[in-house]
C-alpha cells in the first residue's frame, strides 16, 4: 500500500498505483457494508464450490426472501464480487459464480464465518441470560 510519500508502488499490471487519498479510509465503509451484510456473506459462502443457480442459492440460504436475494446478487455483481451468466438452453437459466475478487473475499471472511458457527451456542446463552435479567435499566 502506498503511504502517499511519492514513492508509489506498482499495480498488478506494473503501472504506478495512485497515492492513497485521505478519504480512502472513509470509503472502506463500502467494503464493510458488503462484509457486514449477512445475506452477501452467505451468498459468497454458498458459491465456494462453483456456480449456482438462483433457486439453489435460495434453497441453501435459510430465511432469505426472493427479493432480498435478487437485490443482494445485483449488488454483489455491481461490486465485482460475482458474475451472472445467462445460459441459453431450454428452459433458459442463470447462474452466479464468484469472481477472483469474490474468491478472495470468501477467503478473508471464512474465519469470521467459522467463528460465528463455533460461538453460536455461547451467543444464544448470553442472549438468554441478558433477556432474563430483571434490571436492564442499569445498562446505557
Structural account:
Residues 1-12 have low confidence and may be disordered. Strands 1-3-2 form a three-stranded antiparallel β-sheet. The two termini are 40 Å apart. It is mostly helical. The relative contact order is 0.10. It has helices at 24-35, 38-46, 54-60, 66-78, 100-132; strands at 52-53, 82-87, 93-98. The chain is 53% helix and 10% strand.
Question: Outline of this structure?
Answer:
The chain is mainly alpha-helical and 140 residues long. It has helices at residues 24-35, 38-46, 54-60, 66-78, 100-132, and strands spanning 52-53, 82-87, 93-98.
Instruction: Provide the structure class.
Output: mainly alpha
- The count of β-strands is 3
Helix content: 40-55%
Uncertain stretches of 5 or more adjacent residues: 1-12
> Percent of residues in beta strands?
5-15%
- The radius of gyration computed from the alpha-carbon positions, rounded to a whole number of angstroms, is 20 Å
Overall pLDDT score: 84
The global form is: globular
The largest beta-sheet arranges its strands as 1-3-2
Amino acid at each position: 500500500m502506498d503511504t502517499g510519500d511519492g514513492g508509489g508502488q506498482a499495480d498488478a499490471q506494473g503501472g504506478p498505483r495512485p497515492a492513497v487519498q485521505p478519504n480512502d479510509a472513509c470509503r472502506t465503509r463500502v467494503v464493510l457494508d458488503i462484509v457486514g451484510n449477512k445475506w452477501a456473506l452467505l451468498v459468497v459462502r454458498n458459491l465456494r464450490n462453483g456456480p449456482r443457480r438462483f433457486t439453489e442459492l435460495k434453497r441453501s440460504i435459510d430465511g432469505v426472501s426472493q427479493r432480498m436475494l435478487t437485490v443482494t446478487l445485483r449488488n454483489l455483481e455491481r461490486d465485482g464480487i460475482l458474475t451472472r451468466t445467462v445460459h441459453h438452453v431450454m428452459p433458459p437459466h442463470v447462474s452466479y459464480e464468484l469472481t477472483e475478487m469474490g474468491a478472495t473475499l470468501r477467503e478473508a471472511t471464512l474465519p469470521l464465518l467459522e467463528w460465528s458457527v463455533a460461538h453460536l451456542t455461547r451467543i444464544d446463552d448470553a442472549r438468554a441470560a441478558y433477556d432474563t435479567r430483571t434490571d436492564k435499566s442499569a445498562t446505557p
